[in-house]
Amino acid sequence: MSRIVLVHGAYGGAWCWERCVGPLMEAGHTVETLDLPGAGDDQTPVEGVTLESCAARVCEVLESKPEPALLVGHSMGGVVVTQAASNSPERVRELAYVCAFMPANGQSLIDLTKYPEGANDMIQANLEVRGDPPVAYLPPEATAEAIYNCCDEESLAWAVARRRPQPVAPFATPVDVDDAVLAAIPRSYVFTAHDHSIPPELQRRMIAEHPCRKVFELDADHAPYLSAADELVAALLEIAS
User: At 201, is the pLDDT very low, low, confident or very high (cuts 50, 70, 90)?
Assistant: First the structure.
């Protein structure tokens, strides 16, 4: 049985994984979730929410137990787990990216969205950035179409009520990683075919640039933890085993 650490994406929190945790634990795995700085119930002020602080939070969880983990990142969480795995490679058995960004050294999340394959990204098209330090907001109507377009109304309402604005720093900061160290850690990818946030074309480009041990294709939106939870759990179980 495996240790699984689940890392949410932008605007989210540990709550994102609620439908996945139980089934993974019932299969015998140890499952840990966390709130990144400034997300979920965490009260870190905006100026303290950086890529470095997000990666440090993940490393704290990884280092709380001796067993190496299957480290899973969703969306922006892909950037965070990439940095964390490079910082604490001995604590990571495998990486799994769930419709997530996969940067190489020196790339930021924003850099990846600027690829031609990211042109139809509905997040960038609807983002509102305010304040100093800057914080990103996504209007409710755009949120529904960009992220939860395959979810039922109950799931949509449940998720939107829990979302928080996202400080921009983790989007804009390039990862500072050792590509050779990361290449030694197996990785898998969960591809979402109806994703309006990270277009399928952009997901395929990142998969091509970062060879994966396994690729799972789900008929899901950018929130498979809600719209395709059973299928996502099945993919994670296969990766974990």
Answer: very high
Does residue 131 sit in helix, strand or coil? coil
- pLDDT classification of 125: cutoffs 50, 70, 90: confident
Number of neighbours of residue 108 by Cβ within 10 angstroms: 18
Q: CA 18: distance to chain centroid?
A: 15
Positions of E strands within the chain: 3-7, 30-33, 69-74, 92-98, 128-130, 135-137, 166-167, 187-192, 214-218
Q: What is the pLDDT of the chain when averaged over all its residues? A: 97
Tell me how far apart the alpha carbons of residues 132 and 212 are, in angstroms, rounded to a whole number. 38
- pLDDT over 90 at 124, yes or no: no
Beta bridge partners of 10: none
Concatenated DSSP letters of 132-150: TTTEEE--HHHHHHHT-TT
With tokens 């719209």, the residue in question is 227
Percent of the chain residues topping a pLDDT of 70: 100
User: Does pTM surpass 0.85?
Assistant: yes
CA-CA distance, 168 to 129, in Å (whole number)?
8
Tell me how far the alpha carbon of residue 138 is from its chain's centroid: 17
Number of C-beta neighbours around residue 212 at 10 A? 19
Half-sphere exposure of 168 (CA within 13 A, CB side): 15
Is residue 200 a contact partner of residue 193, using CB atoms and an 8 Å limit?
Answer: yes
